[in-house]
Design brief:
Elements lengths: L1 H67 L2 H9 L8 H16 L7 E8 L4 E4 L2 E3 L21 E3 L3 E2 L6 E10 L6 E10 H10 L6 E7 L3 H8 L5 E11 L2 E8 H5 L5 H28 L1 H18 L13 H25 L9 H13 L4 E8 L2 H8 L1 H19 L3 E7 L2 E6 L5 H12 L7 E4 L2 E3 L3 E8 L6 H17 L6 E3 L2 H17 L8 E10 L4 E12 L3 E3 L5 H6 L3 H19 L4 E5 L2 H4 L4 H11 L7 E5 L1 H6 L2 H13 L2 E7 L6 H7 L3 E4 L9 H16 L3 E4 L5 H9 L4 E2 L10 H7 L1
Parallel strand pairs: 16-17, 19-21, 21-22, 22-23, 23-24, 24-25, 25-26
Antiparallel strand pairs: 1-2, 1-7, 2-3, 4-6, 5-6, 6-7, 8-10, 9-10, 11-13, 11-16, 12-13, 14-15, 18-19, 18-26, 19-20
Helix pairs in contact: 1-7, 7-8, 8-9, 11-12, 17-19
Length: about 750
């Protein structure tokens, strides 16, 4: 018994020592692997960041060169040596040219603006404005030596911008006369260094990155200051910003190791190491005491563990080895399996086993570096949420797996399927040989796989439908982000057609129109605060050609998009509900105009149906009228037939409340919609404005129709205004049939405030 106790104690001590050595050695190995992963991850991001920076700066330099060589700008600068010689048309042309170039730079978030400086006249074009007495030599970056440079395009040293106080680097291209004999000015593109560095830092998704812009002579000092206790993995890009100016990259090692993607794997690995050490130790004890049977059982368990961690089965190769050799091979295999498992978790989706976004980046990077043409197809499953709601998420998950397996099997070696997110997938089609070839493949190979319902689980069959958009490298985009954005846009465009399996190739016109509309919507939000909205007036005359009323008409002069007519932006203002603040701004502007000039005539104001749906509309209108001490008979509201067809109680009550206040209601563009005289009677309107379509190229019969409408309107106590009177013949004919009020270019164009006041 005593001997048995001694043996057990010794075995326990040996087992503990073995387990300790095993854990220490395994931990050291894991740390070495992690250090290598930190270096690899940092090196990859550094190369990508430098490549993108060089590409962005190259584009910016090219842009300033194009501006400096712009014939319109050169001509205007050459012909206008002083600021006073510039006319509004020339200013507008230059602003338009700047806007065109700035729109192409919207994706470069670190770019501030494009400045055009005239050397002789000392004037500046910047951010939609023109400034006088602005000397080129007063720019903080300017050095006399720049004037003697042979290069027409150069990058300045880092300096503080005088308006923002931010550290800035400017890309400058001198503007010369067409014969290159005289320096006229400069095109200057400012880059904010802080924003540039912030973008580099935010694009690093694993751990923390600190980017520092510095001069080359300061690099060694900065490295020494920031390398305490070997905290950072450091890389330096020299001369990337300008001559002698570079960027120092400080990758925080601990933050990378402790990243949400890596840390769970590290913890799991350590737990597995401890468990493995414990299992081996116990197995040692039992094997010594009970011979080989327990040892064999332990080896089998380790084989199973390695098999669970590995995608391949290596057990066959162990059969001809003795037990101790098997243990040696298994230990080596476990380390390899741990590393493979980590790589699999980083680059693959856990549900479908497909490549994920990180793997997508690597795949496309390799293809782009080889300049190999490929297609990126963005796919989104239709009505997937409905599947989850009806059948549950387990069925939804199985549907994703089934869809993935079908597409992956169909693709084979032609491409790779990536799960992008949720029910969104991306195909990288390497075998792209033209649009027609892919359409044929898509319609004959992929779509037929989904025409019939597919059994997802026993008793559950579902027809899988999806929408697709495609962008081709390099034809449609030069980088992964651009290709994804464009294919995603086309996918949503195809989805809006409500046609299953619809595939749309990237269309630049559709995409540009979308960008224009989104830009318009975004700019519209700031139209009031930027003082871009303008009110003009078109008079309304009686038969003796005296002004009796006027209609307020809105115009929008946007600093980015230029002058925009109401029929090109009102629809989007209503869609985004920006029409509500704009509508109240118009009412207030008109009331201010009436009060300031003590107008004797009434002003018509167009009101959107959306605004009339506001419960507090009457309260807000009354507040504005009281603020400017405007009588209710000095304004009237113009509504369209769509308001009447809305047939809303809120709208009806608001209209009736306005009339009770003494505010007249006019129905605009009568005859373009479906409103009947029954609606006119129901709402008891005051003014009927007959659309110009009744008098354009009108025959005698059509003038008779106008006469009938007028007589019916008179029976309803409504005044009639004829819109769009363009000729004297129309005016005289309408007078002859008894019309009394007229509006149109024959009598007056749309006027500025001061022009209207002169006619009153």
């Amino acid at each position: 018994m005593k001997d048995n106790f001694q043996i057990n104690r010794k075995l326990i001590i040996i087992a503990i020592i073995f387990m300790f050595i095993f854990i220490v050695a395994s931990t050291a190995l894991i740390n070495i692997i992690l250090d290598n992963d930190v270096k690899l991850t940092s090196d990859v991001h550094f190369k990508q960041a430098i490549h993108q920076l060089e590409k962005d700066i190259s584009i910016l330099r090219s842009t300033t060169e194009k501006i400096a060589e712009n014939n319109k700008i050169i001509e205007i600068f050459a012909n206008n040596p002083s600021f006073d010689q510039l006319d509004d048309e020339e200013k507008s042309i230059i602003m338009e040219q700047i806007n065109l170039y700035e729109q192409n730079l919207e994706s470069s978030k670190f770019v501030d603006t494009i400045n055009l400086i005239n050397l002789s006249g000392d004037y500046l074009f910047s951010k939609g404005m023109t400034y006088n007495n602005f000397k080129l030599t007063d720019r903080p970056w300017f050095k006399e030596e720049y004037l003697s440079l042979n290069e027409h395009n150069f990058i300045t040293e880092m300096h503080k911008d005088f308006s923002t106080g931010k550290y800035t680097i400017a890309i400058v291209s001198f503007i010369y006369t067409e014969d290159k004999t005289e320096l006229l000015g400069a095109a200057v593109l400012d880059m904010f260094v802080e924003d540039l560095l912030s973008g580099l830092e935010s694009n690093f998704y694993i751990g923390d990155l600190q980017a520092i812009a510095t001069k080359e002579q300061n690099v060694d000092k900065l490295i020494e200051e920031n390398n305490n206790n070997n905290k950072y993995y450091i890389k330096y890009a020299n001369n990337i910003l300008s001559n002698g100016n570079g960027i120092l990259f400080l990758f925080d090692k601990d933050s990378i190791k402790n990243d949400s993607l890596v840390k769970p794997l590290l913890i799991a690995t350590k737990i597995i190491v401890i468990l493995v050490g414990l299992i081996i130790s116990i197995s040692l004890i039992i094997s010594i005491k009970v011979a080989f049977r327990p040892a064999l059982q332990s080896i089998d368990k380790l084989k199973k563990l390695m098999g669970n961690l590995s995608d391949t089965d290596d057990n066959v190769s162990l059969d001809n080895m003795d037990e101790f050799k098997q243990l040696e091979v298994i230990s080596a295999g476990l380390g390899k399996s741990f590393d493979n498992k980590i790589q699999s978790l980083i680059y693959h989706d856990t549900l479908t086993g497909l490549a994920n976004r990180k793997k997508l980046t690597l795949i496309c990077k390799e293809l782009i570096e080889k300049n190999k043409e490929f297609a990126l197809i963005f796919i989104d499953l239709n009505k997937f949420k409905k599947v989850n709601d009806i059948f549950g998420h387990s069925v939804g998950d199985q549907l994703l797996v089934t869809f993935s397996n079908i597409i992956k099997e169909t693709l084979g070696e032609k491409g790779e399927l990536i799960r992008y997110s949720g029910d969104e997938f991306i195909i990288i089609y390497r075998d792209f040989k033209g649009d027609s070839q892919f359409i044929d493949y898509y319609e004959n190979e992929i779509i037929p796989k989904f025409k019939d319902p597919i059994e997802i689980q026993e008793g559950i069959k579902i027809t899988i439908e999806f929408s697709s958009g495609i962008a081709v490298y390099p034809r449609d985009g030069g980088n992964l982000e651009d290709l994804i954005n464009k294919s995603d846009f086309m996918m949503y465009t195809s989805k809006s057609n409500d046609t299953p399996y619809k595939l749309l190739f990237f269309n630049d016109n559709i995409y540009r129109n979308m960008i224009y509309i989104e830009t318009l919507k975004n700019q519209l939000k700031h139209s009031i605060e930027n003082n871009e909205l303008i009110i003009k007036y078109q008079p309304i005359f009686d038969k003796n050609k005296y002004i009796v009323k006027a209609e307020a008409l809105i115009r929008w002069n946007n600093k980015v998009l230029g002058m925009i007519r109401p029929d090109n932006f009102i629809h989007y203002a209503e869609e985004t509900r920006e029409i509500i603040p704009i509508g109240y701004w118009i009412i207030e502007s008109v009331c201010k105009f009436i009060n300031k000039n003590q107008l004797k005539i009434s002003i018509g104001i167009n009101v959107s149906p959306i605004q009339l749906l506001e419960l507090d509309f009457i309260e807000k209108v009354t507040r504005i009228l009281n603020k400017y001490n405007v009588e209710t008979n000095k304004i009237y509201f113009e509504i369209t037939e769509s308001v009447l067809l809305e047939d809303s109680e809120i709208v009806k009550n608001n209209i009736l409340s306005l009339r009770k206040l003494g505010i007249a209601i006019a129905l605009d563009d009568f005859g373009t919609g479906y409103a009947s005289f029954s609606y006119l009677k129901k709402y008891k309107l005051d003014i009927l404005k007959i659309d110009k379509l009744f008098i354009d190229n009108a025959s005698d019969n059509e003038f008779v129709i106008v006469g009938y409408i007028k007589r019916i309107s008179n029976l309803l106590n409504m005044k009639v205004v004829i819109e769009g009177v363009e000729t004297e013949e129309q005016f005289n004919e309408l007078k002859n049939i008894g019309c009394n009020f007229f509006q149109g270019y024959y009598l007056s164009k749309v006027l500025e405030e001061d022009e209207l006041l002169k006619l009153l």
